Amino acid sequence: MFQEEKNRFVLKEEGKDVAEITWQMKGLRHMVVDHTFVDSSQRGKGLAEKLVLAVIEKAKKEDLKIIPTCSYVVSYFDKHKEYNDLIAR
């Protein structure tokens, strides 16, 4: 569904980015997740949550920790304590 590009997952429709989540690497093991965007035409479809879950899966697979700075991602982790082990302390 989402394509992974350099430091982001993106969903494109007709060549246009309609949803994305971005991160910057801090060192070798920390992802600073700093931005989530869903185009207004795609809102209400759960895409933002799916983007966060894609980042979570990447972090698990690559043994990375997440530093959430995007307000949506911070809120997501606050509501889903089952992923607290992935947050960098």
Blueprint (SSEs and pairs):
Layout: E1 3-5, E2 8-13, E3 16-26, E4 30-38, H1 47-62, E5 65-68, H2 71-79
Parallel strand pairs: 4-5
Antiparallel strand pairs: 1-2, 2-3, 3-4
Strand content: 35-45%
What is the tally of beta strands?
5
User: What is the 3D shape?
Assistant: globular
- Please work out how many helical segments DSSP would assign: 2
Listing every helix as H and every strand as E from the N terminus to the C terminus, the arrangement reads EEEEHEH
Overall CATH class: Alpha Beta
At the third CATH level, what is the topology name?
Aminopeptidase
Helical/strand content category: alpha+beta
Into which percent range does the helicity of residues fall?
25-40%
Q: How far is the N terminus from the C terminus?
A: 31 Å
Uncertain parts: none
